[in-house]
Design a protein that fits this description.
Arc Repressor Mutant, subunit A, mainly alpha, 7 helices, three-stranded antiparallel sheet
Length: about 210
């Protein structure tokens, strides 16, 4: 299934959450709001079209096993359906978690990719973090240049807003520097441990 423009972050979030556990639509909406709401506005109206497409593509299935035990008066089509990940959905999720291109660095996708870093390979995590930092450093240069051009022509409130935006980006760059440093240190430690294990392994006498 080809990635659809504008749907990548939501698709990854849905598959990632369903990989943790099957969920009703309402529960999935709440988890998505917690996950995506931290990084960008989340439209509930976009969830069900996404689920419909994932169903059509065989990435998820609907479980209606509780339908017969639910009183008719209490039945709601969306509340009684439990969504589950299929084998194809798991494969799709793993492919999405290996993507480390620009889409994973931008505001739309970075937060979702970061939320599933515990399921992401170390080298992919590092590429995403470094890509995000590079993108924000470009943004910093642009904001600083804009401030230098307009500082004398804007009122104090506009200037405060611009400075606030600049400080926010600077804080995120510092945060990314710390994360990148930890990731590199962990990878170096793992490589060193693997080398020591290899050196300590007994060699065949005949070699």
């Amino acid at each position: 299934m080809a990635a659809r423009k504008g749907a990548g972050a939501l698709e990854l979030a849905v598959l990632g959450l369903l990989h943790e556990a099957p969920m009703h639509g309402y529960e999935l909406r709440k988890r998505l709001n917690t996950l995506l709401g931290m990084f960008r506005a989340f439209s509930y109206g976009s969830l069900y079209p996404c689920l419909k497409q994932l169903l059509a593509d065989g990435m998820i299935t609907e479980d209606r096993s509780d339908e017969e035990n639910t009183p008719l008066a209490l039945q709601s089509r969306r509340s009684k359906i439990v969504y589950k990940l299929t084998a194809d959905g798991k494969e799709r999720l793993q492919r999405l978690l290996t993507e480390a291109g620009p889409a994973a660095w931008e505001d739309e996708g970075f937060g979702v990719h970061f939320a599933f870093f515990s399921h992401t390979r170390a080298d992919v995590r590092l590429r995403i973090l470094e890509g995000r930092r590079s993108r924000l450093e470009e943004r910093l240069e642009s904001v600083r240049a804009a401030l230098a051009r307009t500082r004398e022509r804007v009122d104090s409130y506009t200037l405060e807003l611009q400075n606030h935006g600049l400080e926010s980006v600077e804080r995120e760059v510092r945060w990314l520097n710390e994360l990148i440093g930890r990731e590199r240190a962990e990878q170096e430690q793992q490589a060193l441990s693997a080398k020591r294990i290899d050196q300590d392994m007994p060699r065949d006498e005949g070699r």
